[in-house]
């Protein structure tokens, strides 16, 4: 009980947590009897809106036929159970970095949900899940430089790690004081457009949908992140990886999977790896910015065949470096206020790379587009 009160004080004040050790986190997919993954149903797509410090996001990534890469994101935040704020974000990277990335981030007013918590609404924004649970329509006029009209249609099974996609934090597993949850649609068809002041961007192409809940202060939940999101004509592959702060034993938690066309080849929380094989010190903040990576997936297909895949090589120059404390809305600054040693930066890359996939004795290679983020927090 004393541990619980210490943790609640850290939650409210933003102070550094005591070192509870690795037993104070129960990583997704590692509890006894838990499946490697669970295929998503419509019921798994409800907004949770928990009444404690949290950030809940629905993020829709697109890889257009014209070469644009980006995402739109609806974000719900609760600060210590006392203040709720919402935001809509849009980011677009232009082909061959011909222009600076477009970034818009706008606070939302009068947010709400449908009766069953499937769809999100606010003034000038709607994020609606279809009746059959297989597509989202996103419409936004919250910013005149990024008028959004998009549709994401799931083309392969969605999944989450373990039984419910959730890692829990706390010294009493039956009464966790924090959580982290991820659920994915790894492969989607995308149609629609984003209208900017400089013209209309046709967003026809492939997409990826991530539904995430961070049920505690971000610098308490993780010190580093890696996000790998790859798409080619035949394959989609994802890894979401975070490392906890020393207060939870610097534990590495991963979830990922591979899709071939409309089939989920493998998914789960084991047999995954993201390594920064080359990096250089960022002179502005001393973080080790990666320049080459090795990403690996290992598992089994539903019929028991061994499956593995790898992405190895240079990731080129970064597309952007995001100083989170300079860019994020005020409510996130409130969440990390008073945190010692917290200086979050996100490094974003989008190189062309080749995925090598091996199923049984058959090996295939295919070039595609990778969107990768390396995030350093504390």
From TrEMBL:
<dbReference type="InterPro" id="IPR023374">
    <property type="entry name" value="AttH-like_dom_sf"/>
</dbReference>
<comment type="similarity">
    <text>Belongs to the SVF1 family.</text>
</comment>
<comment type="function">
    <text>Ceramide-binding protein that may transfer ceramides from the endoplasmic reticulum membrane to the cis-Golgi network membrane, and is thereby required for the biosynthesis of complex sphingolipids.</text>
</comment>
<keyword id="KW-0963">Cytoplasm</keyword>
<keyword id="KW-0813">Transport</keyword>
<dbReference type="InterPro" id="IPR033394">
    <property type="entry name" value="Svf1-like_C"/>
</dbReference>
<keyword id="KW-0445">Lipid transport</keyword>
<keyword id="KW-0256">Endoplasmic reticulum</keyword>
<dbReference type="Pfam" id="PF17187">
    <property type="entry name" value="Svf1_C"/>
</dbReference>
<protein>
    <recommendedName>
        <fullName>Ceramide-binding protein SVF1</fullName>
    </recommendedName>
</protein>
<feature type="domain" description="Svf1-like C-terminal">
    <location>
        <begin position="216"/>
        <end position="378"/>
    </location>
</feature>
<dbReference type="GO" id="GO:0005789">
    <property type="term" value="C:endoplasmic reticulum membrane"/>
</dbReference>
<keyword id="KW-0333">Golgi apparatus</keyword>
<dbReference type="GO" id="GO:0005634">
    <property type="term" value="C:nucleus"/>
</dbReference>
<dbReference type="GO" id="GO:0006869">
    <property type="term" value="P:lipid transport"/>
</dbReference>
<keyword id="KW-0472">Membrane</keyword>
<feature type="domain" description="Svf1-like N-terminal">
    <location>
        <begin position="55"/>
        <end position="214"/>
    </location>
</feature>
<keyword id="KW-0539">Nucleus</keyword>
<dbReference type="InterPro" id="IPR013931">
    <property type="entry name" value="Svf1-like_N"/>
</dbReference>
<dbReference type="InterPro" id="IPR051385">
    <property type="entry name" value="Ceramide-binding_SVF1"/>
</dbReference>
<dbReference type="GO" id="GO:0006979">
    <property type="term" value="P:response to oxidative stress"/>
</dbReference>
<dbReference type="GO" id="GO:0005794">
    <property type="term" value="C:Golgi apparatus"/>
</dbReference>
<dbReference type="Pfam" id="PF08622">
    <property type="entry name" value="Svf1"/>
</dbReference>
């Amino acid at each position: 009980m004393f541990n619980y009160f210490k943790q609640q004080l850290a939650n409210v004040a933003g102070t550094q947590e005591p070192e509870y050790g690795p037993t104070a986190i129960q990583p997704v997919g590692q509890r006894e009897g838990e499946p490697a993954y669970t295929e998503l149903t419509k019921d798994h797509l409800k907004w949770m809106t928990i009444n404690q410090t949290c950030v809940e996001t629905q993020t829709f990534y697109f890889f257009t036929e014209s070469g644009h890469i980006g995402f739109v994101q609806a974000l719900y935040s609760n600060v210590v159970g006392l203040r709720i704020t919402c935001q809509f974000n849009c980011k677009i990277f232009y082909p061959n970095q011909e222009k600076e990335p477009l970034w818009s981030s706008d606070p939302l007013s009068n947010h709400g949900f449908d009766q069953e918590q499937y769809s999100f609404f606010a003034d000038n924004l709607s994020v609606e899940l279809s009746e059959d649970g297989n597509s989202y329509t996103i419409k936004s006029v919250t910013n005149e430089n990024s008028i959004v009209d998009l549709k994401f249609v799931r083309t392969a099974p969605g999944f989450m790690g373990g039984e419910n996609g959730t890692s829990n934090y706390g010294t009493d597993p039956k009464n966790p004081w924090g959580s982290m949850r991820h659920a994915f649609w790894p492969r989607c068809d995308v149609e629609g457009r984003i209208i900017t002041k400089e013209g209309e961007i046709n967003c026809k192409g492939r997409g990826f949908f991530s539904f995430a809940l961070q049920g505690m202060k971000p610098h308490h939940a993780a010190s580093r992140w890696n996000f790998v999101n790859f798409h080619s004509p035949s394959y989609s592959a994802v890894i979401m990886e975070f490392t906890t702060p020393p207060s939870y034993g610097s534990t590495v938690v991963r979830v990922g999977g591979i899709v071939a066309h409309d089939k989920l080849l493998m998914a789960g929380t084991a047999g995954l790896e993201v390594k920064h094989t080359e990096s250089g010190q960022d002179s502005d903040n001393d973080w080790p910015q990666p320049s080459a990576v090795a990403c690996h997936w290992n598992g089994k297909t539903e019929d028991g065949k061994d499956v593995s895949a790898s992405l190895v090589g240079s990731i080129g120059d970064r597309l952007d470096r995001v100083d989170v404390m300079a860019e994020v809305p005020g409510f996130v600054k409130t969440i990390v206020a008073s945190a010692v040693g917290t200086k979050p930066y996100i490094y974003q890359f989008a190189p062309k790379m080749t995925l090598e996939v091996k199923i049984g004795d058959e090996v295939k290679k295919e070039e595609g587009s990778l969107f990768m983020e390396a995030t350093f927090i504390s």
